[in-house]
Design a protein that fits this description.
The complex is a heterodimer of chains A (94) and B (428).
Chain A: H1 7-11, E1 15-17, E2 24-26, H2 37-42, E3 48-50, E4 56-58, H3 68-73, E5 78-80, E6 88-90
Chain B: E1 2-9, H1 13-24, E2 29-32, E3 47-48, E4 70-78, E5 83-88, E6 101-102, H2 105-119, E7 122-124, E8 129-135, E9 138-144, E10 147-156, H3 163-167, E11 179-188, H4 191-198, E12 205-212, E13 220-226, E14 230-238, H5 239-244, H6 251-260, H7 262-268, E15 272-282, E16 293-294, E17 297-299, E18 308-309, E19 314-315, H8 317-337, H9 342-345, H10 347-354, H11 356-363, H12 367-371, H13 374-392, H14 402-409, H15 412-425
Parallel strand pairs in B: 1-2, 1-10, 2-7, 4-12, 10-17
Antiparallel strand pairs in B: 3-6, 4-5, 8-9, 9-10, 11-14, 11-15, 12-13, 13-14, 16-17, 18-19
Helix pairs in contact in B: 1-2, 1-8, 8-10, 13-14
The chains are: A alpha+beta (94), B alpha/beta (428).
The complex binds flavin-adenine dinucleotide and iron/sulfur cluster.
The site of iron/sulfur cluster has 12 residues of chain A, from helix 3.
Chain lengths: 94, 428
């Protein structure tokens, strides 16, 4: 019981409905922007990571739509929308 | 363009309270919600404080699907290797009208939506509002899923990111200093085990808060609430503290570490995590609120910044319900004169000012600055733990006198810091 559950497995417990297109993207040319590094720390789903070249990457599957990355980094570096109606995470407890 | 009396953006508590109140008074109200059902996108800690809103919706509460009345409170100062816990229970927490109830939003919001529908509100799910339709500076409707829908008034109840309010110019960009992120697990556990483990009689519930090491000294804390047959276990932490205050730590790691604490391991043992969720909380208070109304538009709930964290109580849900109610009242007043401009809608501000909502935000306007005080989260829990350790210790050799060992921790500087902390606290 006391072992840590891997984040992917935890996200796997949630109900997600597929998106037509990613609802959050890193703006072109902003991948190395210092503001974006904040997303790596704040995203509760751990979807941002920094690669060896210092670029921040986002893999959108598992997004909880909390908006923390938008507030932390700002719309200068992120193109941020909620997913289309009827897609994305659907909480059963909330 | 099809036209309604009122369009509400978002079927959360604020939006549904507005729709319920408007429909009850006979207005034609359309609620647009992007989730598959109301509550599908909504997360709270949490517990709801019903006392302030009982009278606004007298017919609702008897059958409301809340989880457990919270009659046992605990708050723990968590140091690295120990913790100091204060427990509180009392008759005032109990009874048919308890102080607070644990709640799960997917269930509660769905139910509230049904009540609004019974009154005649129309709720359309799976529909995201993409834009406001603004003509000569006045909001006259919304674009959603390719359709244009008109209304005398739009109520922006779209939650913490306040995207609609920003489109309408009621608010500027959001500052990370004014927001906290919460993330939590729902851990299913047998009812009987919950009741035994937390010392509960039947349906009674417990709330436990933790501050200190649980957020590595950052602004925020850990929480645990008992639901009927599950636990809500999570962390709230200031966004700015996460990005800018050492040590650098990725948010999800905080919850993992929390679950490994001996204080927590015992409580969740045998439980099965069934959901992981996250959401932002507006915590900037009165000073960061922005405007609440404009031409053809009102903002309610988190979208208006109406949530606050004053340490042991995190409140937002009853403010969402009440502001939705007063937004509806303001619209009904504006209908009498047919004036839906900012001038006609400004009665909303007055209604809120006269209610517990703005009175609370006035009373606690300094709370965000007072609580944004690192020693409170970093140092105080360690200090309290160290003092406890020495008070209780009986070593192999002779025990040191109590006063000198206390003085080791409570240096003049330390006492002075505590006095300063006390002075800060006098503002809230
Ligand atoms: C971890 C955590 C712990 C908390 N603990 C407590 C607590 O113990 N007690 C308490 O009182 N409060 C607590 N809060 C705060 C409380 O949950 C919120 O204040 C409350 O949920 C706000 O309700 P709302 O109706 O304003 O917004 P929400 O519940 O966020 O509803 C907004 C709705 O609008 C919809 N929406 C948004 N944009 C669109 C769009 N473009 N088109 C269509 N629909 C849209 C969303 O899908 C959602 O249904 C906590 C919050 C968190 C995150
Ligand atoms: S919205 Fe939340 S979960 Fe989604 S990417 Fe941003 S921080 Fe991560």
């Amino acid at each position: 019981m006391s072992e840590i559950m891997n984040l992917k497995a935890k996200l796997g417990l949630d109900v997600f409905k597929p998106y037509a297109e990613p609802h959050i993207t890193i703006k072109a040319g902003m991948e190395k922007h210092h503001l974006l590094k904040r997303a790596v720390l704040v995203c509760p789903a751990g979807l941002y990571s920094e690669n060896a070249g210092g670029e921040v990457e986002l893999s959108i599957d598992g997004c909880l739509e909390c908006g923390t990355c938008l507030v932390a980094c700002g719309s200068e570096v992120l193109e941020w929308h909620y997913p289309q109606g009827g897609s994305g995470v659907q909480f059963r407890f909330g | 363009m099809e036209k309604f009396d009122v369009i509400v953006i978002g079927a959360g508590l604020a939006g549904l309270a507005a729709a319920y109140t408007l429909a009850e008074a006979g207005a034609e109200v359309l609620v647009l919600e992007k989730g598959d059902y109301p509550g599908a996108k909504n997360v709270t800690g949490g517990r709801i404080y019903l006392n302030p809103v009982r009278d606004l919706f007298p017919a609702l509460w008897e059958k409301a699907p809340v989880e457990r009345p919270i009659v046992h409170e605990q708050v723990a100062l968590m140091a690295r290797d120990r913790s100091l816990t204060v427990s509180y229970t009392g008759d005032e927490l109990k009874g048919p009208e308890a102080n607070s109830y644990s709640i799960l939003r997917a269930k509660f919001d769905r139910w509230l939506a049904q009540q609004a529908e019974k009154k005649g509100a129309m709720i359309i799910n799976k529909t995201r509002v993409d834009e406001l339709i603004i003509e000569d500076g006045k909001v006259i409707g919304v674009r959603a899923g390719g359709d244009e829908l008109g209304a005398d008034v739009v109520i922006a109840a779209d939650g913490v990111l306040a995207l609609t309010s920003q489109l309408a110019g009621l608010r500027g960009p959001l500052d990370p200093k004014h927001f906290a992120v919460g993330f939590k697990e729902i851990i299913e556990l047998d009812r009987g085990i919950i009741e035994d483990r937390f010392g509960l009689e039947g349906d009674e519930g417990a709330a436990r808060l933790f501050m200190g090491e649980v957020t590595r000294g950052k602004f925020g804390g850990g929480f645990l609430y008992t639901n009927k047959a599950s636990l809500s276990l999570g962390i709230v932490v200031g966004v700015h503290d996460l990005t800018d205050r050492a040590p650098a730590v990725q948010a999800p790691a905080l919850l993992d570490e929390f679950k490994l604490r001996p204080e927590i391991v015992k409580l969740i043992s045998g439980g099965q995590t069934v959901e992981y969720s996250a959401h932002l909380i507006p915590e900037g208070g009165l000073k960061t609120m922005g405007r609440l109304y404009g031409d053809g538009i009102l903002a309610a709930g988190d979208a208006a910044g109406l949530a606050m964290n004053i340490g042991v109580t995190v409140r937002g849900m009853e403010y969402a319900l009440a502001s939705g109610y007063y937004a509806a009242q303001a619209v009904l007043k504006a209908r009498e004169s047919g004036d839906f401009s900012a001038e006609g809608l400004k009665v909303y501000q007055q209604l809120l000012n006269d209610s517990f909502v703005m009175k609370d935000f006035q009373s606690f306007r300094d709370a965000p600055q007072v609580l944004d005080y690192p020693p409170l989260f970093e140092h105080l829990p360690e200090l309290a733990g160290s003092i406890m350790k020495d008070l209780y210790a009986v070593p192999a050799g002779p025990k040191e006198r109590i006063y000198p060992s206390l003085r080791r921790y409570l240096t003049v500087k330390e006492i002075w810091d505590l006095i300063k902390l006390g002075r800060r606290m006098m503002k809230i």
